[in-house]
């Protein structure tokens, strides 16, 4: 993996880490700077208001990043035709946050290009509540090639090769069991 690839992935991972719950309030932030991701949990007072369970995660694969968004929704919200658009806009807000934070952290910009359509899973927990989990893949600009498709390095050392070369189907001299006795 090249150093440029590692720097980009570390920058995006740190940007995602800066979106922890409580970072939207400068009182709870380690550096005193408020960060707004655009999630519903950032609205209202966390002590007196009913908390909204939503959040995001990122995972990396080759030259792309997968952004996952999860949240609790009322069951009747699923019947709304604009529901998927709302979920898609939340994924877009997370993407914008990652790009802003990456720029603050590294001083460079990164472009995340949408690949395909988002996948939205809607799970009914009860007659009232439901859980939504959606993910979207984005291609990361600045990553050259596909590191998963590069030829692998030969990592076996000489000792391992010698050991594997000793393999034989010949029976050892000190074996006292008659041939075929274990094949019952």
Characterization of this structure:
The structure is a single chain. The protein is α+β, with helices and mostly antiparallel strands and 184 residues long. It has one domain. It is 26% helix and 24% strand. It has three helices and four strands, in the order H-E-E-H-E-E-H. Helix 1 packs across helix 2 (83-106). The mean pLDDT is 78.
What descriptive keywords fit this protein?
184 residues; alpha+beta; 4-stranded antiparallel beta sheet; 3 helices; 26% helix; 24% strand; elongated
Gist of the model:
With 184 residues, the chain is an alpha+beta fold. It is built from 3 helices and 4 strands.
Give the helix/strand layout.
Layout (H helix, E strand, L loop, with lengths): L2 H15 L36 E8 L2 E11 L8 H24 L5 E13 L4 E12 L17 H8 L19
Antiparallel strand pairs: 1-2, 2-4, 3-4
Strand-residue fraction? 15-25%
Mean pLDDT: 78
Number of strands: 4
Instruction: Give helix and strand order, one letter per element, not per position.
Output: HEEHEEH
Strand order of the largest sheet: 1-2-4-3
* Continuous helix count: 3
* Fraction of residues in helix: 25-40%
| Terminal-residue CA separation | 52 Å
Radius of gyration: 26 Å
State the low-pLDDT regions, or none. none
Helix- and strand-based class?
alpha+beta
**What is the count of distinct domains?**
1
Oligomeric organization of the protein chains = single chain
Globally, the shape reads elongated
Biggest beta sheet attributes: 4 strands, antiparallel
């Amino acid at each position: 993996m090249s150093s440029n690839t590692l720097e980009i992935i570390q920058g995006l991972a740190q940007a995602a880490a800066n979106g922890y719950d409580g970072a939207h309030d400068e009182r709870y932030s380690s550096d005193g700077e408020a960060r707004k991701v655009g999630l519903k949990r950032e609205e209202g007072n966390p002590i007196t208001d009913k908390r909204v369970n939503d959040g995001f995660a990122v995972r990396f694969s080759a030259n792309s990043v997968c952004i996952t968004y999860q949240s609790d929704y009322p069951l009747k919200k699923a019947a709304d035709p604009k529901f998927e658009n709302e979920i898609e806009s939340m994924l877009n807000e997370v993407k914008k946050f990652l790009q802003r934070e990456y720029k603050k952290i590294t001083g460079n910009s990164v472009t995340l290009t949408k690949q395909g359509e988002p996948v939205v899973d809607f799970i009914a927990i009860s007659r009232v509540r439901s859980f939504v989990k959606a993910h979207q893949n984005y291609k990361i600009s600045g990553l050259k090639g596909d590191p998963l498709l590069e030829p692998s390095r030969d990592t076996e050392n000489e000792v391992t090769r010698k050991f594997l070369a000793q393999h034989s189907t010949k029976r050892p001299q000190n074996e006292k069991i008659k041939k075929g006795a274990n094949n019952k």
